[in-house]
Write a structure and sequence with these properties.
Elements lengths: L1 E3 L3 E5 L5 H8 L2 H4 L9 H16 L5 E8 L5 E9 L6 E8 L8 H15 L5 E7 L3 H9 L3 E12 L2 E11 H10 L10
Parallel strand pairs: 5-6
Antiparallel strand pairs: 1-2, 2-3, 3-4, 4-5, 6-8, 7-8
Helix pairs in contact: 1-3
Length: about 190
């Protein structure tokens, strides 16, 4: 499966993607809002293998795709959508990019594509996600794709020796359809 947007290709992971993932997941800027303090080849290979295993699931419930510039195959991040269970009407999304690609709108573009896939192809009613409250860049992506902030959970996550607040966001199918009609959700090429 792949999704093609104006500037991006979202494609299935392959086993040889691990070095590119290790490169960006080792960056201290990336690690700031994760419990990890570092990444190893073994852990990243397991991370990529999880996405490869998801591709074999029948029926498939998890779609985590490598994010590449259109016309290229080397990834610089990933973006995905996951159904909580078979035939679920609720899905959650996640995305991450190499820090050198932050601030260019790529996360927003990839997240829009994966949300559109969730509503148009998976036929979900609700898409949700969360972020560490201090991760304002991630929160901005959620707001740019039309998600509404539902709440702030105080001291929700414990890592790196401290408690972190989290923010919960969601978008419902009628809200997405309204944005799509207004042209805020440009259709990407059909999944193949």
């Amino acid at each position: 499966m792949q999704l093609v947007t104006e500037r991006l290709l979202l494609r299935e992971f392959v086993a040889d993607d691990w070095p590119a993932v290790l490169a960006y997941q080792s960056d201290p800027r990336y690690l700031r809002y994760y419990e990890w303090t570092g990444r190893t080849e073994q852990k990243v290979r397991e991370f990529v293998q999880m996405f490869l295993d998801n591709q074999q699931e029948q029926p498939r419930r998890k779609f985590q795709l490598a994010v590449c510039l259109r016309g290229e195959t080397r990834l610089f991040g990933n973006c995905g959508i996951r159904l909580s269970k078979e035939n679920s009407q609720v899905a959650d999304i996640g995305y991450e990019l190499a820090p050198e690609h932050w601030g260019r709108g790529y996360a927003t573009e990839a997240a829009r594509a994966i949300v559109a896939f969730g509503f148009s192809e998976l036929k979900v009613h609700r898409v949700e996600t969360w972020c560490i409250a201090e991760n304002t860049g991630s929160a901005r992506v959620m707001e740019k794709i039309g998600m509404k902030r539902e709440g702030r959970f105080r001291d929700k996550e414990w890592f790196k020796g401290r408690w972190w607040d989290t923010l919960l966001y969601s978008i419902l199918e009628p809200e997405w359809k309204l944005l799509e009609r207004k042209g805020d959700y440009v259709q990407c090429d059909s999944p193949t």
